[in-house]
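User: Fold this; tokens only.

Assistant: Input:
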Amino acid sequence: MKAAVVAAAAAMLAGGVSASRAHGHRHAHALFEKKGVQAADEVCTPGCTTIYSTITGEMTLVPPTTTSVAPVPTTTGPITVPTPIPQTCPTPGTYTFPATTIVVTETTTVCGASTTEVPSGTHTIGGVTTVVETATTVVCPVATTETHNGVVTSVIKTTTYVCPSAGTYTIAPITTVVPSVTTVTVPIVTTYCPGTYTAPAVVTTITETSVVVYCPFTSQNPEPTATPEPTSEAPAPIESAPPAESAPPAPVLGGNGKQWAMTYTAYSESADGGCKSASQVMEDVAAIAGAGFTTLRVYSTDCDTLPNVGAAARAHGLRMIVGIFIGKVGCDNNDPDVAEQINALKEWKQWDLVDLCVVGNEALFNGFCTVSELTSLIGRTKSELASVGYNGPFTTTDVVSAWTDMDVSSVCSAIDVVAANAHAYFNSATLPADAGKFVAGQLAIVEKVCGKPGYIMETGWPSSGNCNGVACAGPTEQRAAIESIQNELGNKVVFFSFRNDAWKNPGDCNCEQHWGCAAVWGV
């Protein structure tokens, strides 16, 4: 069964198309696929998030031409706390989910769940990550699983863990083995505060069979807390300072002429998607430099990305755009994945290579962050990295609808430049030869939203896949689209991506594995 989280925001539905888009780092790197929208500010459980990829494109221009008869969804189980409500949609059609209200009268801690997609193999997931500066005994609640008579149950346990020396420790992780690309459930500890929680009414169109839709609750009361901090002598997190009102002039980024940057992940192109060796990374980066690019964009810190890509970039005279990737609900520097990435950047700290730090890739669109959460995380990341010498620019990147469909003024204040991901292929009215105009139009929109210089952090065109209206995939179409983008604004875009990725699911467009565009430059 596939699972999808459908955006509760009416703005998603007004565009007439539904989309899901996620990118991920090594803990869930099969999430690196093309795209979608949503977010709701100040919510206890952030807006509906998508667990599987449905490729339809950005919410612009082309409304759907058909509608479906409204089937009847099924709801599982009584609701006692405001965890997202699972609704089963057995057949394609238009579904209406009524509003639901829950009153929580006392602070309640439950074993919730997040999901992530992983490739075949053995994976260590979950647990609580903590950083200690000396030998420390840590006592904390952890979410784990127990199996009785073949039934797997998520439970909360309190554990005591001895950290023998300074370092980063993951307490009580779970090991799972999967035979193929699989969406796995990771138990998490979540606490709900007293208050009234409402899941708003949602109308959505489902295009596949056996889809599970999760609709979240919102609340004006204090938000639920995520996994509690371990009780230890480890230093408290550093609070971020609000952005200064008179910021220095916006940094000047981009390339000279028609070419600037390429996205790069250190995953093999094979079906297993394993990590590349340092020598393989060096070979790739040499090819990218030889093709005339000056900058590499990396999404996160997994697969030894920072030491391996950093060494290759230095060897071949390239600059870097580094990132903090958010691949699930948990937009907080206390989240283990986020904390691990921040710590990796602080330990690496080769800032003379870095032109920009991107905190979040479509985190608002996918509902992984609210606006206030993302603003806070950007501030925290600034403070953490400044403590080890990074004073360069920050941004976050998202699809255009995420910038326009909500009040993002606090995010605009927190960033130095504005950034968007724009893929013309997912707009069914755009020919390959017009891709440059489409992407330039998307960039102009987000620049106007924030009143700051903007850059495109992802754009490209697939070399194989289905036609989406007049937007058809193929080698000739890919070359035409990329040349159009280069001619229009090549010095302000990051092309996606270097090589094809056989480890991805093909998606509804049959295109997810075919975004590699190095051949356009003869590589």
